[in-house]
């Protein structure tokens, strides 16, 4: 798991503006940061891969008007392609069932909430994948995305996010 930064100011404000306040124009610069994270963390893995975003909840997509995490994956792919990296944006993972809003849930409840929630359509056998997300808190969403892709026979090389919350001990 690679993250560009810690979820703290000014990155927190950027992500909140992007996701919750309609600052869609931040997709390009945030996508560039995500691309740099992928290229720096795993330069040998960055080429010949598909970026697959953790799916946003259908309700969130309706409220925002678009899937922000998929937009980040697309922007990252464009940036990487612009410097000659062979990368695509893979078919979406989708929700196989409804889930609760993750806000306010602890790590164990988040994992329980998302267990078996995602599915990847088709056979991904042999496809090299990097899972991308905007923010990692407990890792439950990323773990579920990896599980769904591996169930579809993808070769998951790693996961990348713009930001991650600091780990807390004892919790």
What attributes characterize this protein structure?
171 residues; alpha/beta; two-stranded antiparallel sheet; 39% helix
Could you explain how this protein is built, in words?
The chain has helices at 11-20, 27-41, 58-64, 68-82, 107-114, 140-151, and strands spanning 2-6, 49-53, 87-89, 93-95, 118-120, 128-136, 155-164. A five-stranded parallel β-sheet has the order 1-7-6-2-3, sandwiched between helices. A two-stranded antiparallel sheet has the order 4-5. With 171 residues, it is an alpha/beta fold. 39% of the residues lie in helices and 22% in strands. It has six helices and seven strands. The protein is globular and about 35 Å long.
Give a short overview.
This protein has 171 residues and is α/β, with parallel strands linked by helices. Helix content is 39%, strand content 22%. The strands form two sheets. Strands 1-7-6-2-3 form a five-stranded parallel sheet, with helices on both faces. It has a two-stranded antiparallel sheet with strand order 4-5.
| Bulk shape | globular
Measured as a percent range, the helix fraction is: 25-40%
Low-confidence stretches: none
Number of helices: 6
* Strand neighbour order, sheet with most strands: 1-7-6-2-3
Note the topology.
Layout: E1 2-6, H1 11-20, H2 27-41, E2 49-53, H3 58-64, H4 68-82, E3 87-89, E4 93-95, H5 107-114, E5 118-120, E6 128-136, H6 140-151, E7 155-164
Parallel strand pairs: 1-7, 2-3, 2-6, 6-7
Antiparallel strand pairs: 4-5
